[in-house]
């Protein structure tokens, strides 16, 4: 039996475990990336391991999230990132150089390589045939130190594409169609591969849009073959030597196959408040629009923004709509400026933002109260925009551009058809905003500069076989990391200050949670299915740890968040019978018995002292993760075993 594309890359990088269902596999990591919202913690963790230099082929620190410098905090963190990167052998992409995933796709990602990043949308690089996986910052720190990255051996899903997209239908509509089919938890434990004759009709940026939003499926990653289209993109970026042809074997077997006819797709929109709440745009035609935001790591490529420029050229944005556009990289912005497209956007009434994540991570551009915001982004979770009662719709650049002209959600296929934007034969190459690290001989003279906002890492208390703890919080299904640890301009500057961040933990669900948790001096969170979906931010585990959370009991967990809980030393437990969640309530005193046995695969019993109800729980982790929990977290485990 042949191998899938992902299986070939896994086999070439396997350093531990067996490639079979139910096993955990350890992979050698070629490249890492961090961004500034998660990077400070990752580099603090790397320093805590006592290593002098990174041991990967390439590691890059990007500054793209916390670029709004309304106080000293972000500037101090940027200075820390710049100096620590210089010292330990990491390239540093300065503020303004662009969004990590867009820049990495352009300048660094390579077919056949492994990449992990402290950002859940790292699979963007799957568009170029790279096995790219989002991970917690501590996992990235370990990989930078030469350690393996571990994942449960994934199932294989093939999305077989046929046909070609019609005019004004885009790659965003492809991934929205997949989300409609699979849901936000349908990809958990799977790698999604794209194949079929339809692949050749998609450019690398289009493929990257699709793999980017594979994160919303809960998938381990998504990946496209590396073919002549890949070669042409790399050649245009001056990197043809990085090309490697890669494809699944003809007789590869998949656990599931999804068929999508590209020619049958229509413009789609993800309606509030979930990326899988997908409907045809034409069915939403009476929806009045207040704001349109174009950009993010999903849809800010040169071809995306050139398409928007051509739709808007010579026209004016509806006076009741605020339009903002953030080019994904300085390369994209430079090209738009050079060919006049930037002028067309400005003349139409667009507000041009810097090349950064911006509104996607809640850094500005919050919509008006109860407003409708169309965004070419990847997430529309409640409150993520900065406006609690806003309705955020995820759409393609074509739909966004058409709608900002009419003031209503508009199907772009109703506009006159325009020729697709051709990929450039050569991109302008200017890497002067990417600082190279000091050499090993010079690194000793580099001083790492820390500001007062950088606080020590919290540490876990040892687990006991029996623990009596209150239920500090009970939440439902699909709780996101935005629920647990919100983003936004008020909070992101404190990503290296866990004590301050703790004030905002679960603010969306229960603003009294932080104080209640601190007063309890230890407790349990109870959650529903797919707990911790969304971002890779390990703050959603570190902050509960600081607040005294000892265990999270859920119906099921999202992959990255579950790993992050283990990495910081919080016990992740799952109901043997999902209906048992109804037996537990906020404030109940819960007694966990047999915790150490649970780490060995045995069932643990939890008794409610208030009601007398007993529930059975399991700790579905690997033997390695059990050792991590016994050690008090991955950092302690790594330092002890190094």
Count of helix runs:
21
Percent helix range: 25-40%
Cross-sheet strand order for the largest sheet: 21-22-23-24-27-26-25
Secondary structure class reads: alpha/beta
Shape, principal axes of CA atoms:
globular
The fraction of residues in strands falls at 15-25%
Number of strands: 27
> Sheet bearing the most strands, described?
7 strands, mixed, barrel
Task: State the end-to-end distance.
Answer: 38 Å
User: What is the rounded Rg?
Assistant: 23 Å
Overall mean pLDDT = 96
Low-confidence runs? none
Helix/strand layout:
Layout: H1 5-13, E1 14-16, E2 24-27, E3 31-35, H2 36-48, E4 58-62, H3 72-88, E5 91-93, H4 100-107, E6 114-117, E7 131-134, H5 137-144, E8 149-152, E9 155-162, H6 171-182, E10 190-195, H7 204-212, E11 221-223, H8 228-236, E12 256-261, E13 268-270, E14 278-280, E15 291-294, H9 302-312, E16 322-325, H10 330-339, H11 341-348, E17 351-352, E18 372-375, E19 391-394, H12 397-406, E20 434-435, H13 440-443, E21 466-474, H14 481-484, H15 498-501, H16 513-520, E22 523-527, H17 539-546, E23 549-554, H18 559-568, E24 571-575, E25 589-593, H19 595-598, E26 604-608, E27 614-618, H20 623-631, H21 634-641
Helix pairs in contact: 2-3, 2-5, 6-7, 9-11, 9-12, 17-18, 18-20, 20-21
Explained architecture:
The chain is of the alpha/beta class. Helices cover 29% and strands 19% of the residues. The protein has 21 helices and 27 strands. Helix 2 crosses helix 5 (137-144), helix 9 (302-312) packs across helix 11 (341-348) and helix 20 packs across helix 21 (634-641). The mean pLDDT is 96.
């Amino acid at each position: 039996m042949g191998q899938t594309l992902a299986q070939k890359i896994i086999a070439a990088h396997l350093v531990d475990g067996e490639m079979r269902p139910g096993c955990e596999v350890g992979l050698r990591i070629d490249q890492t990336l961090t961004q500034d919202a998660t990077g400070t913690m990752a580099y603090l963790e790397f320093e805590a391991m006592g290593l002098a230099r990174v041991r990967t082929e390439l590691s890059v620190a990007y500054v793209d999230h916390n670029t709004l410098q309304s106080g000293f905090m972000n500037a101090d963190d940027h200075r820390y990132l710049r100096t620590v990167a210089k010292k330990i052998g990491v390239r540093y992409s300065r503020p303004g150089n662009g969004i990590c995933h867009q820049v990495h796709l352009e300048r660094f990602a390579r077919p056949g390589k492994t990449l992990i990043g402290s950002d859940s949308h790292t699979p963007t690089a799957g568009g170029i045939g790279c096995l790219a996986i989002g991970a917690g910052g501590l996992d990235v720190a370990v990989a930078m130190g030469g350690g393996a990255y571990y994942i449960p051996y994934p199932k294989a899903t093939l999305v077989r594409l046929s046909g070609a997209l019609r005019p004004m239908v885009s790659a965003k509509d492809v991934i929205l169609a997949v989300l409609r089919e699979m849901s936000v938890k349908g990809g958990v434990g799977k790698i999604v591969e794209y194949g079929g004759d339809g692949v050749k009709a998609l450019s690398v940026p289009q493929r990257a849009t699709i793999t980017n939003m594979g994160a919303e499926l809960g998938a381990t990653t998504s990946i496209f073959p590396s073919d002549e289209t890949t070669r042409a993109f790399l050649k245009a970026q001056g990197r043809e030597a990085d090309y490697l042809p890669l494809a699944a074997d003809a007789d590869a077997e998949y656990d599931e196959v999804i068929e999508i006819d590209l020619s049958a797709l229509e413009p789609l929109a993800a309606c509030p408040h979930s990326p899988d709440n997908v409907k045809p745009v034409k069915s939403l035609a009476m929806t009045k629009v207040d704001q349109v935001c174009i950009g993010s790591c999903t849809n800010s490529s040169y071809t995306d923004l050139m398409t928007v420029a051509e739709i808007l050229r010579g026209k004016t944005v509806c006076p009741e709509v605020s339009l903002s556009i953030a080019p994904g990289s300085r390369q994209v912005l430079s090209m738009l400026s050079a060919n006049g497209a930037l002028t067309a956007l400005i003349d139409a009434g667009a507000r041009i933002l810097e090349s950064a994540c911006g509104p996607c991570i809640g850094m500005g551009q919050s919509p008006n109260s109860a407003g409708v915001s169309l965004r070419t982004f990847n997430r529309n979770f409640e409150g993520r925009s900065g406006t609690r009662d806003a309705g955020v719709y995820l759409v393609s650049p074509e739909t966004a551009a058409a709608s900002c002209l009419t003031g209503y959600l508009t199907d772009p296929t109703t506009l006159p058809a325009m020729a697709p934007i051709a990929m450039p034969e050569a991109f302008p190459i200017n890497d002067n905003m990417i600082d190279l690290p000091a050499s090993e001989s010079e690194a000793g003279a580099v001083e790492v500069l820390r500001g007062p906002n950088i606080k020590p890492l919290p540490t876990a208390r040892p687990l006991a076989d029996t623990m009596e703890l209150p239920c500090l919080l009970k939440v439902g299904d699909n709780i996101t990391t935005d629920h647990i640890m919100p983003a936004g301009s008020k909070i992101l500057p404190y990503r290296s200050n866990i004590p301050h961040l703790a004030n905002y933990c679960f603010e969306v669900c229960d603003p009294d949670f932080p104080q209640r948790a601190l007063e309890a001096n230890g407790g349990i969170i109870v959650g529903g299915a797919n707990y911790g979906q969304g971002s890779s931010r390990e703050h959603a585990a570190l902050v509960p740890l600081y607040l005294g959370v000892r265990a999270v009991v859920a119906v099921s967990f999202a992959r990255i968040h579950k790993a992050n809980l283990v990495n910081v030393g919080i016990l992740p437990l799952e109901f043997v019978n999902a209906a048992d969640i109804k037996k537990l309530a906020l404030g109940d005193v819960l007694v966990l018995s047999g915790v150490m046995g649970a780490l060995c695969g045995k069932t643990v019993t939890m008794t409610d002292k208030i009601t007398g109800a007993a529930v059975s729980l399991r700790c579905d982790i690997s033997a390695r993760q059990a050792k991590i929990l016994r050690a008090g977290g991955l950092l302690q485990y790594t330092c002890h075993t190094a």
